[in-house]
Every structure is written in C-alpha cells, then in structure tokens.
Amino acid sequence: MGLQLLGLEEISGSLVALDHVKNVSNEEMVEIELANGSVRQGRVVQIEGEKAMVQVFEGTAGLSKKNTKTRLLGHPMEIALSKEILGRVFNGAGKPIDGLGDVYAEKFADINGKPLNPVSRQYPRNYINTGISAIDGLNTLIRGQKLPIFSGSGMPHDKLAVQIVRQAQIADDDGKGFGIVFGAMGVKNDVADYFKRSFEETGVMEKVCMFVNLSNDPIIERTLTPRCALTAAEYLAYELDMHILVILTDITSYCEALREFSSSKGEIPGRKGYPGYLYSDLASLYERAGIIKTSKGSVTQIPILTMPNDDITHPVPDLTGYITEGQIVLDRNLHQNGVYPPIGCLASLSRLMKDGIGEGYTRKDHQDVANQLFASYAQVLEARSLASVIGEDELSESDKRFMEFGRLFEKVFVGQGFGVKRSIIETLNLGWALLSTLPMSALDRLDPELIKANYDPERAMRTISLALQGEE
C-alpha cells in the first residue's frame, strides 16, 4: 500500500497538484478516488520540492479539492505480458478492449523499458520481406532497423500499413518465430475498425498484438501507446526469441499530443510549439529497435508519420530523419496518377540495406539491380523535365526509351497494387525485365557478365505482361 493523501492543492485542466508529498518519483502511478467511490488513474509528471503534478488519464471532471483521495503506488506504469498478447487488442494504456478478458500475466514490465547497453547490441543483418517491390528491391527493410514512412494527409499510408502487416515475413520463418505489434495513435473509430477487420479477414490477427488509441481518448494515453507497444515487442523478441515488426501510426499525432501535454505543464515551447525535448523523446522510442547478443529475436520498427502540408522540414519528419536509418517517402504526384503504393523511390532510402542483402541473404545481383534501377529512373526524370520544355516528340530515341521505361517502372514495379505480394526473386526478375527494355549501352551500373546473363528483351515483355495482368 502506497502513501495516501486526502485533498488536492490545485486542479488545472487534466492536471492536479498535490502538496506535502515526500519520496515521490517522476512517472510514478497514482490512484485517484472520487467522493462517489469511483477510481481514476494518473501519473506524476512534474515534481517541485514537496509539490507534485499528476496527469489524470480520464480527465479531472467531477474532482473535488476537499474530498478526493490520492494513493501513490510506488512504481511506474506497467503492463501485463505473456505470449497470450498475440491476437489481442488493447487500448493505448495496455488494457484489453476486445472482450476476451484480462491477460494472464507471466510478468509486469515498465513501459519505459530498460536502457540497452550499446556493447550488447548486434549489428542488423538479414531482411524482412514485405512483399512490396519498391521496398524490398530498392529500400530493403533489415531486421533490427528503424525505417519510417513519411506520408501526408489523404495519402494511403493506412492501406500500406495493412498490406505490410498482411504480407511481411522473414526468410527463415517457420510460422511461429515472427510477429507484429501494431500501435495506432489518435485514429478515428472507422480507421481502427478498418485495421482490426483487415487483420481478421486476412487471417493474420493471431500473430498481431494491437494497441489502439482513438482520437477521442485522453491525450496522455496517446503518449503512452507507443511505449506500451514497444514494451510488448521487447518482451516477445528478447524473452521469447521472436522476430517482431513494430508498426506505429501516426507519430505526428503522438507529437501533437506531446505538444499539448507540454503546453498544459507551462513548459517553454520550441519550434512550431513542440517541446524542446522532442528529439530526445522520439529517440527514446526509435532507439528501442535493434538486436541484442543474448537473444535470438529482434525488434524492427516502421513508424508512420504524416507531414503537415507535405513539408519534410517540419520538426516531426526532420527529427525522425536524424534518428532513424532512412525513410520511405510517399509521393503525392504518384498517388494522384493512380499509382499504389505511391512510393517515391528517389526520395526514399534504407541506410542499412547494403548489410542485409546480396549473396546469402537475397540474391547476389540485388545491389547492382537496385543501383541501375535508381540511375535509370533518375534519367527518366531528366527526360521528363526536357520533354516539358521541347515536347516529347522532339526527344531523342534514347530519351523516348527512358520515358517508356519510366511509365512501366511506375505502373508495374512501383504500382503493384494492394492485392499483389511479390517474393524478392520475383521483384529482382521484374527489375531485370524493366531494364531489358532499355538499350544495353544505357546499363552503365551493371557488370557486363551480369548483363549477358540476364538481359533478354523478349523474356522481359512476357514478364511485364504477366505483371500487368496481375498474374505474377
């Protein structure tokens, strides 16, 4: 039984102040009992001498300064963990909301996690196959990596998240060693239902653990959601030796909740009103991805964020880019042209890709094919820029070939559609098929021996035709 106090010093918004408090810790959990006997949860967010500020999860409506009892529980926020959490749905604070009852806990864990000794980390190797060519072929996701998706308002990032959950797998997966932790922050009810229904209909729900914070839920809960999700992921990865993919959407909603929370505490704002500690706060989430030497498991992160006004210099994508190991950028022009997924390949990057592909992981020619596809697509954009000035009819034959390559690349390779799942071999073969539509002299990033073995225009047209028909 922790310290119990009667009465409140002050009530301000969702915060209450306690006075004459001793031996209290930051982020310590608090039980608040109202005069009618109902109990609310809170958390210590600020300490000044013997005065403590407590954030009330359910809000302060109905609280009385005189008749409210508070009990300091003596521990930070914890969630119940066991293998049973796979297939379950929780709210942003880790409480079950799927009607299946409480989780029989094998352990309780602090949602802030334990700091990993850098020496105990293992360098990320091998890859996770998402079934999406623009990611697997050009911006490969490596186990233990943190690779964000930069999206914008109205873009299909929710659809892309569902597709990744449905299709993701590891090369040596026996069906039991891979799982997904999905954290949704500030989503509307229909979006939350879409996620859950999609996972159930495609039969992947049994390997998914969901944490859902709705747009009408308390903002303090929104700031807890990714930490609950990552704590669950760390348990599954480091104690049950599973490979866990964590998808967090929308990080921008999380940061806006953090900004509102910071403002309510009277903290001095930084750029665009966000708190000055936004960088370190985001780092405390992203740096929980990785692999440790004492476990066979791994935690891989795909944080999804929406860029306000498509501004990649906005504080949220800007700081995220500093911390993470690359980014997948969704392109609005591709989206408006009906390309799905609208991944802007030249703006996207996976910094760890080189360490988890090639012989022994994907295929020996993977890096060479990716380099040539990038170079050829860059030529496409140059040809389009020239065509906008002089007209496509006035282009050279070489530039016209690049223009046609660009149309096929966007329609077939990038725009594979929602229902198509490609293996890494199918992706690389399709890449070769597209490169075979170009003059052999244009393939200046490839070894002549590779070109001789794989350059086949006739076979290329059959492969592209099958891809266009969705029969690949």
From TrEMBL:
Keyword Transport found: yes
Domain called ATPase F1/V1/A1 complex alpha/beta subunit nucleotide-binding: residue spans: 131-350
GO BP annotations listed: proton motive force-driven plasma membrane ATP synthesis
Pfam families on file: ATP-synt_ab, ATP-synt_ab_N, ATP-synt_VA_C
Keyword Cytoplasm: no
Matches recorded under CDD domains: ATP-synt_V_A-type_beta_C, ATP-synt_V_A-type_beta_N, V_A-ATPase_B
GO function terms (MF aspect): ATP binding; proton-transporting ATP synthase activity, rotational mechanism; proton-transporting ATPase activity, rotational mechanism
Keyword vocabulary terms for this entry: ATP synthesis, Hydrogen ion transport, Ion transport, Transport
Domain ATPase F1/V1/A1 complex alpha/beta subunit N-terminal intervals: 10-67
Domain ATP synthase A/B type C-terminal: 355-454
SUPFAM superfamilies: C-terminal domain of alpha and beta subunits of F1 ATP synthase, P-loop containing nucleoside triphosphate hydrolases
Family annotation (InterPro entries): ATP-synt_VA_C, ATPase_F1/V1/A1_a/bsu_N, ATPase_F1/V1/A1_a/bsu_nucl-bd, P-loop_NTPase, V-ATPase_su_B/beta
Role: Produces ATP from ADP in the presence of a proton gradient across the membrane. The V-type beta chain is a regulatory subunit.
Listed HAMAP family: ATP_synth_B_arch (MF_00310)
Entry similarity comment: Belongs to the ATPase alpha/beta chains family.
Name of the protein described by the UniProt record: V-type ATP synthase beta chain
